[in-house]
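Q: How would the C-alpha cells look for this protein?
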Amino acid sequence: MAHSISANCSFSCNSLAFRLFAEPIGSLTEILFRLLASRQYHRLVIKVMPGGICPRPVGGSMKKRMLWFLAVCFAIVLIYSPSLTGAQDTLIPTRFIGKWTEHTAGVKEGATLSITSIDLATGQLKGKWIPPTGAAAGKEFDIIGWVSTVPSPDKQLDHVIAVTFSVSLTTYGSVTSYTGFFKDDTIIVLSQNVRPNSRYEWDHITANEAVFTKNP
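A: Here is the predicted structure in C-alpha cell form.
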C-alpha cells in the first residue's frame, strides 16, 4: 500500500510542482507582453519634444530589460516542462501494455498478467490476472497498481521504472501484491500473498520472487 501511495505521489507531485512554478511565470509573461503592446505603455515611454513636433522615444533600456526578462521566463518554462524533461515517460504504455507470463521458482506453469491500460497523468495501471491451474484456472481477476519513474540527472546511476500492483483472487479469498521494477523488457518483483485460511497463524502470509516476460 505504501508503495502504491508513493508511486502515485511521484506522478502527482511532478505535475503539481510544474504548475505551481511555471503557471505564475507564464501569467506574468503574458501581462508583460500586453503591457509592451499597449498604448498606455507607449504614452509613458514617448516624450514629446518642445513644440510637440517630433516625438522622441525614450525608455529603450527599459524595453531591453523587459525583453531579457521575458526570454529568461520562457527558457525556465521550457526547461522545467514535463513534456520536454521526460518527467513522465510517454513510452510507458507501449512498454507495459500487453500480456506477460509469470516465472516463479518451483512453479511449472505461471499465471498470465494482462496489462490493459496505464494513465500517464497518475501512473495508474489496470488489467487482468489469469491463473493457469486450480479452481480459478482460466478466470480473469482485476488488477490495479501504479508505475512511476523520473529521469536521473546523474547518467551513471542505474535507472528503472518502479511498478506495483495487486490482485484479489476471490475464488480463494486471497490477496497478492507485487512490487518491483521494469528494466530490459522484464518486470522483476517481490510478491506477498495473504490467505484467509491457514494451518498456523504465522503462515497466512507467504513471500516470493517472480519475473514477468512479455509475450510476443
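The chain has two domains: 2-85, 92-214.

The longest helix spans residues 2-37.

Upvote if useful.
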